[in-house]
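Anyone able to model this chain together with zinc ion?
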Amino acid sequence: MSNCNSCLKDTNDSYCRSCLQKLFNGKKINHVLQFTRPEFNELRLNHGDRLSISGVQTKYSAKLEGKELQLTEENGTYILKPIPHETFQHVDDIPANEHLTMQIASQVFDINTPPNGIIYFKDGGIIYVVKRFDVLDNGKKLLQEDFAQLAEKTEESAGKNYKYDYTYEQLAELMKKYVAAYPIEIEKLFSLIVFNYLVCNGDAHLKNFSLFRNEQFGDYTLTPAYDLVNTRLHIPVEPDTALEFFKDGFITETFKAGTKYTRIDFIELGKRIGIKNDRVEKILSKFTSSSEEVTALVEKSFLSDDLKEKYIQLVNERRERIKY
Ligand SMILES: [Zn+2]
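re: yes, here you go
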């Protein structure tokens, strides 16, 4: 028995049946790619930058050919994220961290996420693999706009810090403007903000939230969540949240006293963005009463033992802040 490379449950194969179905359309894909990391690097250089997808962390486009995942310049239906060439702390653990954080989001908190898992280079290096949610199996591309686009913020218009120069309250206001099903979708956005805080994802900036635009009706819904990582494990000095909560420089008395967001701030944010108080309480209690499920997934994950311990400790600290 080993752990499924996607859901982490016990299985006799690389991926359990259910995950093979969701992640690879039922094809029995090996959890080892046909190329090594050096071969991959060579391939990457030969293609210029055309295999990579923009973003801070380099991502590569891949598609299924027979029973293999192959790199591709066009019509990619998967994104591969190997260990980045960066100098972050514990950089080798970044793929396992993203995989674990995405699985916690989906399995413990019912946050909508695309199917994802772990796959390896032929010579052993770990890769996070995720199915693209903006491309359907028939190749049709969905219209997706991130909140930097919706807010009309670019480096040219708002400077280098444009992805961070905004607040979650404003993000919700933008959503209200575009999303007809706002009362439903805003609870999903709020849950995602609480989740990011719980798992120390300090990089949930404007480009890490997106809406789908329905071509036929022109209305918008929230896309699945993506790029969820416990960034504190790799960047210890990062601020607790990528965006501040409240617009116009507002801060709560408790924040002023402790310079940390706590339960009071989440309740205030919920109120300001139009979620009923009993719903806010219900959502928060889901995040504060889940420590066993989170710990169980961390223990089964592909993180190194040191970081498993640190991950659990960080989440426990954040959970206490959301409790009181
Ligand atoms: Zn599975």
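Residues 305-323 form the longest helix (19 residues).
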